[in-house]
Fold this protein.
Amino acid sequence: MAEMIPTTSYGRPLTPREIQKEQRRLEKEQDIRRKPLKTVVHPTRIIAFAVQVMIAIYVYDFLRNHFMLIVLALLAAVLVLDIVGLILIYRGVSVEAEIPERDVSRYNTSFLKLTLINKSLAFSMDTCVKLDVENVFYKDKSGVVLSLPCSIRGTYEKYIPLKYTMNGLYKYSINAITVRDILGFVSLRKKVDVETEVNVYPEREGGANLNLTDMARGMTESEETVKKGHDFSDVSDVREYIPGDKLMSIHWKLSAKRDVLMVKDRVSMSDQQLVIVAELSGDDREVDDILTLTYAVVAEMVKSQTYVRLLWWSEGRYAFEERQIMNMENLKDAFGAIYYENIYPDGDRTRGYMLSIHPELKAYVCICTKDGEADAVIIEQD
């Protein structure tokens, strides 16, 4: 999550007393932000208005002055207009949220476009919008309350700059807004359902200095592990079917035209496939470093035209998820799926499961935490 740290206007260091005061202010602000928006009556303003009306009545009754009668009429009219205006703006106000770029790189700045729309003939100077932010992968939630003006039949747009320090799927949602009447008597809560999201990916350049030579030991020659629809081979010829040929090699369209089974003759390229396993284990920072390194390594492999078989352990399915990575779009799709997974505490289970579920792999590259840092380790299976 991005953090905003207040500073003095002159840039001087804060004194201990100022730091404590600022901390108390931030804690109070956080408490306010955590509270849900709700309908609230402000008795102080109501009492103040009632006192003004009683004073005007008393003065008129004492002086029998026509001017005070006009004042009383104006106060009554203002009260009626205030109530009618609150009802109109409550019915006519709505909010929209949009992030133009749905995929961004970490540390790059993007924007959230917040649009407040008012279709009524009333206005409000204090329309509160509760914006909730959640990183789905790390289960990290926060929120902020924004006070926006709402003009007559107008649209107010606010661009909020966003900068991310963690990878993941970020969801921005607005479940309620409150509109306040001009006199400030009542804040009415209105339910809304607005949601937008953005995928935050690591930096591709992070793997530029990696030594990828040793990773060749993680290559696999097993064709049976390639999923249907991701055949790492070239078609060299088309010939008639011979008993014993695989059904998946049949060229169905050509067979239908010639009225005889035709199969694709392939030249295997499975020796160019690298198996990489990303361990989603550890604390949030460790997992984030693992994801960053995984993205960098796979991106470098894609750049060198080496196909990658990316695996990770899924706690929800209790099985390995697998993706064939042939380009950057495949890599982004794989990370989009990873962002819905759960982090688990024990990384050793990944290697144990690999040995029992995929014993055919002689070696693979494991992206894990080693000596407190993310590292690419070659795991050789007996």
Q: What stands out?
A: Confidence is low (pLDDT under 50) at residues 2-12, 221-235, 267-271. The chain is about 30% helix and 35% strand. The CA atoms of residues 88 and 120 lie 6 Å apart.
